[in-house]
Design goal:
This protein has 7 helices and 9 strands; from the N terminus they run H-E-H-E-H-E-H-E-E-H-E-E-H-E-E-H. By secondary structure, it is α/β, with parallel strands linked by helices. It has a single domain, classed as Spore Coat Polysaccharide Biosynthesis Protein SpsA, Chain A (Alpha-Beta Complex). 33% of the residues are buried. The N terminus is likely disordered.
């Protein structure tokens, strides 16, 4: 019985490996920019890098990383070293505050890198926070592959029951199709970044698609979502997961 179980596992494991190899063989070659915007995050970059190292495509030369942070401490550079892609790091003291800081950062990055251009070298821009960990890239790459030839400009999701708010901690867009910086004019905004994102997409009639993220559209309790993303604030929990799973 023991040998039978081991044999079954070997077969299943082999099929999984073949499936992964086939998936990446069929994957469209695309250039991706991963922008990571943080508010006083520090150790999170270390764990972000440890997870990313196990992502075959997102840790390859086909993915660039741009980190935007207002955390000006000596040890942040040591934590960022765990991100093997050699990210571009922009440390700034510009900070409108916790609520609007993420919008401000994304808006500045779009202008700084001249991303709104039909000749932009990136097919996709993925926005994340440093504490949104990619535990497995397969689902994300599957989404990017499936959406590559569509006219959808943004790929968004829900993480709260508020239908007027798209998640701001994780969204994707195609810079070549974006005509304006929808993230500017944020200084007088009185509500959440999530409501800002949906409001702007509707206001400018920007075509987008909503993907599933949580089975009940709610992030709590915090857990690995349907796309294998994990937004977790308890870093002890993250550390233990990494140690127990050899990440």
């Amino acid at each position: 019985m023991v040998y039978h179980k081991l044999y079954q596992f070997t077969i299943i494991n082999s099929i999984f490996k073949i499936d992964c190899q086939l998936f990446f063989f069929l994957l469209i070659i695309m250039k991706i920019l991963l922008i990571v915007t943080g508010h006083r995050h520090n150790v999170e970059y270390k764990y972000f890098g440890k997870f990313l190292e196990h992502c075959k495509y997102l840790s390859s030369k086909n993915c660039d990383i741009f980190i935007h942070s207002n955390c000006d401490t000596n040890d942040i550079s040591e934590n960022i070293k765990y991100i093997k892609n050699t990210p571009t790091v922009h440390i700034t003291n510009k900070n409108i505050g916790y609520t609007l800081g993420g919008i401000e950062a994304v808006s500045d990055i779009l202008d700084m890198l001249n991303l709104i251009d039909e000749n932009c070298k990136y097919d996709y821009v993925i926005h994340l926070h440093p504490d949104v960990f990619i535990t497995n890239e397969k689902k994300i790459m599957e989404i990017l592959n499936n959406e590559f030839y569509t006219n959808n400009i943004f790929i968004v999701n829900y993480s709260t029951p508020n239908i007027n708010a798209y998640s701001f901690d994780f969204f994707i867009f195609k810079p070549k199709l974006l005509k304006i910086n929808i993230f500017n004019n944020y200084k007088t905004w009185k509500h959440s970044p999530e409501e800002f994102l949906k409001k702007k997409l509707l206001l400018h009639e920007i075509q987008h698609v909503i993907i599933n993220r949580f089975d009940n559209n709610f992030y709590s309790p915090r857990r690995i979502d349907l796309n294998f993303m994990w937004h977790e604030h308890n870093l002890n929990k993250v550390k233990k997961f990494i140690e127990n799973n050899n990440v």
